[in-house]
Amino acid sequence: MAASPSRDARRSRSLSLCHAVWAREQAYWRAVETNNMQDYRALWREDFLGWPFTNFEPARKGHITDWITQHTSKDDSLKSYKLERLTVQVSGEHGDRYVPSPLIGTDPIYLQG
Length: 113
What we know:
The chain is of the alpha+beta class. Helices cover 37% and strands 16% of the residues. The protein has a single domain, classed as Nuclear Transport Factor 2, Chain: A. It has 3 helices and 6 strands; from the N terminus they run H-H-E-E-H-E-E-E-E. Strands 1-2 form a two-stranded antiparallel ribbon. The C terminus is likely disordered.
């Protein structure tokens, strides 16, 4: 039995959203590697609230690049990275990505891989 048109449409939309989530993940790391703060900030909603792993408390979009500038001000930067797409899950309007990402830099914070 063939899938219904609405089921095919949902599957197509989900696949499209998965590709969009993955493209944003790639854009995120390109912006970090090239130290492009404008592109990096553009990835986040205006009402963003998150907890960067280097912060002691949550941060709004205005401080989302602090962790990067803390390193680049000490002449440290992300030297390379490797993204391996394991899974992208889209549920409604939200998407999650799961990637192991070994990072290479001179600061211990980058030495995770």
